[in-house]
Fold these 3 entries.
Entry 1:
Amino acid sequence: MEKEVLVLNKAGLHARPASVFVQEAGRYQADILIEKDGRSVNAKSIIGVLSLGIPQNVKIKLIAKGLDENEALEALVRLIEGKFGEE
């Protein structure tokens, strides 16, 4: 499963929201990737997520494969669209 989502929070996917994102991704068995500009990283890796340098108003693609891929994508999209509770 794949889903594109726009990062809306002011600072983008900086340290705190990246940490929240990785923790949420880690709750699922599915393999989850984040793709930006053709580069994919493991969504369960804080270093990987931060290495993408995702700013505000950038579309990213979430890719999930596994038993709970639907639930994982729904939860992660909700988190991003909810601006990680920052605003």
Entry 2:
Amino acid sequence: MEKAVLAYSGGLDTSIIIPWLKENYGCEVIAFCADLGQGEELDPVKEKAIKSGASKIYVEDLVEEFVTQYCWPVLKAGAVYEKKYLLGTSFARPLIAKKLVEIAEKEGASAICHGATGKGNDQVRFELGIKALNPRLKVIAPWREWNIRSREDAIEYAAAHDIEVPVTKEKIYSRDRNLWHISHEGGLLEDPANERPDDLLMLTVAPEKAPDQPTYVEVGFEQGTPVSLNGQPYGPVQLLTELNRLGGANGVGIVSIVENRLVGMKSRGIYETPGGTILYAAHEELERLTLDRRTLQFKEQMAVKYAELVYDGNWFSPLKKAMDAFVEETQKNVTGTVRVKLYKGNCEAVASTSPYSLHSEELATFSADEIYSHRDAEGFINLFGLPLQVQALMEHRTGLKQPKAEA
């Protein structure tokens, strides 16, 4: 093998993979780091990768593509995994896989390497993406090959190879960050009996330390896509960045979850998704205003399957493509504004308006109106309840159910 492209983050696992690949495969290692909005984490990446033994490193700014082509579709779908997780790591992996394939093809590499563990979901997400986009590329997954069995072992390997890593045996959390969220796993978090410590948080303040007065923000949507804040137009990256700031300052978007991994085990993690949490609350409220009952109910049911597909790494599957087409059709009238109240970790949509609103105050009012006749309800109830009436008459006729005697 002459060349391998490594999905590189500068974290513990990918830092030690560079010398490991050279020692065990004798190949040239080309590192690739996707800028998905990690912030200052990217500053030392280039120097560190070369120092660790990479021959070249690509660092590509993918933030806008990440937000518009990955965050927004999942938001429009209303997809939430197991009622809590807003899928920030799950839908970042297919974009990284896509770029890994592009670089491998450009460089003439025969393999792609990732640092996902053999117990996690990311190995599946990376490899399904690679299989869908270029099935001829070989995949190297060191965690399934080497004799390193823990993060403590990995720290010792890094020390032996004089590689600086951003973790210690005391602060051993595994983190994944992008503009949508940050995840925390490992260490004391692995035991669900332990409450998360406040010093763990990086994007949000603890709710009890948030301001004593609520913050209001008005989010504007066009066909399901967020486009403005408080009446001012915002670009996608700018909008999500500002909502992260507002949500984080008010302790919004902190989730503790024991989730079911695809590989069959349960794992405990802490997620911070301040801006995404605000957007989900606003988008859901606007859909309640603009979608008819059957479409809304069917979309809510489909969102569960959509979330599962994304979580399981099937981003490039035919079924997800078909689901996306359905979602886009439902979003044609999801245009309007929603006012959201942020207060000490709570996020509540409190008001909404839309030119396509299906709510009619004239119909809903208890006052007299000319459109709705109360007398019409009698015939509707008779027809709607006809199957129940026929069932009950049959039961009485056959003796399956005796009528109650008059008191």
Entry 3:
Amino acid sequence: MFVKRFPDAKPYEAPNHRDVKAVRLQGFEAGGPTNQWVGLSHILPGGGAGPDASPIEKVYVLLEGELCVIIDGTETVLRRMDSCTIPAGEVREIINRTNDVCSMIVVMPYPPGVKP
């Protein structure tokens, strides 16, 4: 078992994100998971990401707040404990349209060619 305490989680910057603060909970370290990494993102009011696509799929799990996910012009609002999978190559935009901070878990496989 590999345990990482929350105070030891390191911040990271995700490309094409705005007003998002993120920490890596698991991954990219010796002894951690070998096929995916896990992040915690706090999205400030008005913040978000995209529109863009990733070459690998991702899973979002909303812990608090609301997040609007836009795919092909269709808007879906995720709320507390909702989750979604964004397939590889799918263009998505996420926006926090509320006045509250949105918190979510992000789970993604490692990029091709990257080993922890």
